[in-house]
């Protein structure tokens, strides 16, 4: 596979995907969404050997900083949020175990990848934040996945406060499943156990769990509508452009 935004390794039923836009804080753009979707398609279809585990990783200082504000500021039309929502939805349903390994900062859409993962392993230096309200936005597409993972009030508080939480706080609220230092040691321990699970069994189990907690399908249309309205608001787009061009938040002189 020829990839621009990712580096990918396949080994003995495990696919490791590393976000590879370090110059842009591993922010999400349309190309990254397409490439992760293509990798996921291969993981679902490969049979020899079957891929049963997909690991998502970032750089040591940033897992994923969210949407690409520079692309937003330079575009006259907002991006369609549905491909990203569909990708996260697919991660929750794919017949493989998805693991986010978080070092450094996970922000906004980066938290979306975390919340859509089956297992989240955090390094002791990891942070998790939703900064959207600072710009007049809110994380419409992230919230269904986050609520499903940590509950309404905790997601509500994280959204309102806009401040990053530590790995310890993420573990306490259920956003992270394990806190490891170094996190690679914890990943190895998890893989030793998880690699024995059968792909068909994983798929059946995840399908059952998806139907048990169906908030992701129920809230998809409202989430997409809200996202489109927010990113079409001239005031919001001006706030984003000012931040990109001047590194100033809306209230700063």
UniProtKB/TrEMBL annotation:
Under the heading InterPro entries, the entry gives: ClpP/crotonase-like_dom_sf, Enoyl-CoA_hydra/iso, Enoyl-CoA_Hydratase/Isomerase
Superkingdom per UniProt? Bacteria
CDD domains reported in the protein's UniProt record: crotonase-like
Return one GO MF term.
catalytic activity
* Gene3D superfamilies given in the database record: 2-enoyl-CoA Hydratase, Chain A, domain 1
Q: Which Pfam families match?
A: ECH_1 (PF00378)
PANTHER family referenced in this protein's UniProt entry, alphabetically:
ENOYL-COA HYDRATASE (PTHR42964), POLYKETIDE BIOSYNTHESIS ENOYL-COA HYDRATASE PKSH-RELATED (PTHR42964:SF1)
Q: Which family does it belong to?
A: Belongs to the enoyl-CoA hydratase/isomerase family.
Q: What is this protein called?
A: Enoyl-CoA hydratase
Tell me the organism. Answer: Magnetovibrio blakemorei
Provide the taxonomic classification: Bacteria, Pseudomonadati, Pseudomonadota, Alphaproteobacteria, Rhodospirillales
């Amino acid at each position: 596979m020829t990839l621009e935004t990712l580096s990918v390794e396949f080994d003995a039923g495990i696919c490791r995907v590393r976000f590879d836009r370090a110059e842009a804080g591993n922010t999400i753009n349309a190309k990254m969404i397409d490439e992760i979707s293509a990798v996921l398609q291969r993981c679902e279809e490969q049979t020899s050997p079957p891929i049963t585990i997909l690991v998502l990783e970032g750089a040591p200082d940033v897992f994923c900083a969210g949407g690409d504000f520079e692309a937003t500021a330079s575009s006259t039309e907002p991006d369609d949020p549905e491909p990203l929502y569909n990708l996260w939805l697919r991660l929750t349903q794919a017949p493989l175990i998805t693991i986010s390994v978080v070092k450094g900062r996970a922000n906004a859409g980066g938290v979306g990848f975390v919340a859509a993962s089956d297992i989240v392993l955090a390094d002791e230096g990891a942070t998790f934040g939703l900064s959207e309200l600072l710009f007049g936005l809110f994380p419409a597409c992230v919230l269904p996945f986050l609520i499903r993972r940590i509950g309404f009030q905790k997601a509500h508080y994280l959204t309102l406060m806009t401040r990053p939480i530590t790995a310890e706080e993420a573990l306490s609220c259920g956003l992270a499943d394990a806190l490891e230092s170094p996190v690679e040691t914890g990943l190895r321990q998890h893989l030793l156990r998880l690699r024995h699970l059968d792909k068909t069994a994983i798929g059946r189990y995840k399908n059952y769990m998806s139907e048990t907690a169906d908030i992701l399908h129920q809230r998809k249309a409202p989430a997409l509508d809200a996202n489109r309205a927010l990113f079409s608001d001239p005031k919001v787009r001006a706030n984003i452009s000012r931040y990109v061009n001047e590194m100033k938040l809306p209230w700063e002189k």
